[in-house]
Each structure stands twice: as C-alpha cells, then as structure tokens.
Amino acid sequence: MAVVDVHRFAESITCHAWSPDLSMVALCPNNNEVHIYKSSQDQWERLHVLEKHDQIVSGIDWSSNSNKIVTVSHDRNSYVWSLEGGEWVPTLVILRLNRAALCVQWSPKENKFAVGSGAKTVCICYYEQENNWWVSKLIRKRHESSVTSVAWHPNNILLATTSTDGKCRVFSTFIKGVDTKDPKAGSPAESKFGEQILQLDLSYSWAFGVKWSPSGNTLAYVGHSSMIYFVDDVGPSPLAQSVAFRDLPLRDVLFISEKMVIGVGFDSNPMVFAADDTGIWSFIRYIGEKKAASSGASYSSQFSEAFTKFYGQSKATTANEASESSKSRGGVHDNCINSIVSLSKAGSPNVMRFSTSGLDGKIAIWDLEDMQEELGHQF
C-alpha cells in the first residue's frame, strides 16, 4: 500500500469531492466556502472559491458525467453549481428544511440527488425541465433523529440512510416522470416513493457512513460503538453480520470490491475488512501495517491508545505507546478521517485508488496495487 500524494489544504477539511477527470478537487475548509484546487506540476493551485452558503458546508458531490457540483450546508440550503464561461454559477435548490443539511450524494444516473438533514428528513431532489429549476420531494416521519449519511443503490431507485437513532434504513425513491420502472416484476424498485423497504436495528449507538457494494448485493455501515455491519440479500429476509474491533469508531466506509471494505474514522488510520470464501467478514489489518495485530501485548497497546485519545491522559508512557502504535499503522493523518472517496470510474467493480480527508486539513491519495498482490483473492 503506497500513499501517492498527501497535501495539507487547510486547518481542517469538512468534506471533499473530485472532478470527473480527477484533475481538480473541491473541498470545504471547515467554513461556508468551497475551494476548488487543480494539480499542476506537483503543486496544487486554487482556481475558484464558491461563496453562496452562510454556514459550514457539510456535503459536496461532483457528478462524473454532467460535471455539476452539488453542495449542502448547515444554513439548510443546497446549490447546484454549473461551469459557464469559466465561472461556477449556482442554482438554489429549495429543500424546505428547518434544520441543517448534513450530507448529499448524486444518484448513479445523475438525474436526482439525496440530502440528509438534522430535521429527521431526506430530500430527493430532481430537475424540472418545464420550470427550469430543482425541486425536492421529502421522505418524512421515518427517522427518529438526524440523517448522517445517504447512499444510492446502483439501480438508481433504492436509497440507504443512517441516522443518530442508530438505525439503517432503505427506501424507494421512485419518481414518476423521472425514473423508469424496473423490468423485474415485484422488485423493491417498483415501490412507491418514500416506502420503507428495510429497517436495520443492529446498532445501539449513532450510525454513519452507509455504502452499497458495486453490485448492490451487500450493504455496509458503521456504528459509534466501534462496530461495522454488513447486510446481504437486502429485502424481507436480510442476512446481517456485525464485526467489532478494538479501536476508535469509524465514520465512513468504501467498498473496494465485493469482498473488501476500507473503513476510516477516529483512529486516523484506514482499516481493511474482508469476507472469506464462506462470506464471513472480519478485520484484516490497518493500511501500512504488515499484518493484523492479535497478541495480548498489542491489545494492551491499542487499549491504551484509545483511552488516551478519548480521555486525554498525559502519562508519558501511555502517550509514547499510543504514538508508537500509530506510527506502526501508517500515520498519514494526524486527526479523525471523516471522508473516503473512490478515484475509480463510476460503476467499476474494483477500486484501485481512493482519497481520504480529515480534521487535520489533509487530503491523501492511496494506491491499492500492493494490497491487490497480497490479498488478491478478495479483489
């Protein structure tokens, strides 16, 4: 596993997204602006600053085909940005929210995008050609708390959400005139808009970072209790697995293939999870670590590091143990990693590169070629 590039853009980064050709990155430096940088001769040059929001920008997504950027903010608004004459022009999206917008993602066909919010509501936004504006339909009265993440199924209809009520849910977002019916009769995609297909009560703590596998057959999300959950056969009789790990909780996940997931979070080091030939998921290793630690001495060191991070203990020996443990796992980021983004083409069965951003203000680009050789059977 090699880190291709690491650059510190700001004191802290809230979220980031890449242009279709991966030559530019849009990020929020933990304020109400979106900065767009372009890589040139091993340096990053700031090209644009998008200034329209009044509060922190909490979500960014850059469409791979239409080259549009969607942003959401704690100011309860969303904008779709289009590049016209070398300038990014915003179009306001009326979300009808009374609390902060927290996350956003374009659908696979890019004819819709979903916004999760602190209003216990999910907004499904789409473009009306007749009126030349973006409108939203709301999924209400389903969540009991803030919606922390959203993820589109490859079929462009099903949407998975996680919430601080500890639950993961799957909804139908079928909109007449926007979507086409699934040819498979009786499939969940034929359900009416806002119908709940599935509710998962696996976590007893806040839930974050939901993602679908490339085929859409497996769902993964994380809990604030240092757990990650995998769900197969999403429908009336799902098959669920829970994997507990010893260190700090995760915030986001990414499917590298059907049998491998990268998780990032408060431990500041990406973690690798994989399924064996029988479909059982387990923790494999930290990125940058040669093998997963399983000895009692290692467990003691990991516990000391976690205790230090949570409670701020100042004992020199404990701090040194934490530092050494962190260095042995890679140490690219210095603070919580809050976002992981694929750098492969949309719909690709395998992800060979990805980027991470965190509260340390860094964006790191990772290459998976070395790991493919070591764990080839999982790719």
UniProtKB/TrEMBL annotation:
GO terms for cellular component: Arp2/3 protein complex. WD repeats lie at residues 50-91, 140-172. Keywords: Actin-binding, Cytoplasm, Cytoskeleton, Repeat, WD repeat. One of its GO terms (molecular function) is actin filament binding. The keyword Repeat applies. InterPro entries: ARPC1, WD40/YVTN_repeat-like_dom_sf, WD40_repeat_dom_sf, WD40_rpt. Pfam families: WD40. The keyword rRNA-binding does not apply. GO terms for biological process: Arp2/3 complex-mediated actin nucleation. Its main location: cytoplasm. It is found in: Cytoplasm, Cytoskeleton. Component of the Arp2/3 complex composed of ARP2, ARP3, ARPC1/p41-ARC, ARPC2/p34-ARC, ARPC3/p21-ARC, ARPC4/p20-ARC and ARPC5/p16-ARC. Belongs to the WD repeat ARPC1 family. Functions as a component of the Arp2/3 complex which is involved in regulation of actin polymerization and together with an activating nucleation-promoting factor (NPF) mediates the formation of branched actin networks. Arp2/3 complex plays a critical role in the control of cell morphogenesis via the modulation of cell polarity development. Functions as component of the Arp2/3 complex which is involved in regulation of actin polymerization and together with an activating nucleation-promoting factor (NPF) mediates the formation of branched actin networks. PANTHER family: ACTIN-RELATED PROTEIN 2/3 COMPLEX SUBUNIT 1, ACTIN-RELATED PROTEIN 2_3 COMPLEX SUBUNIT. This is Actin-related protein 2/3 complex subunit. It comes from Brassica carinata.
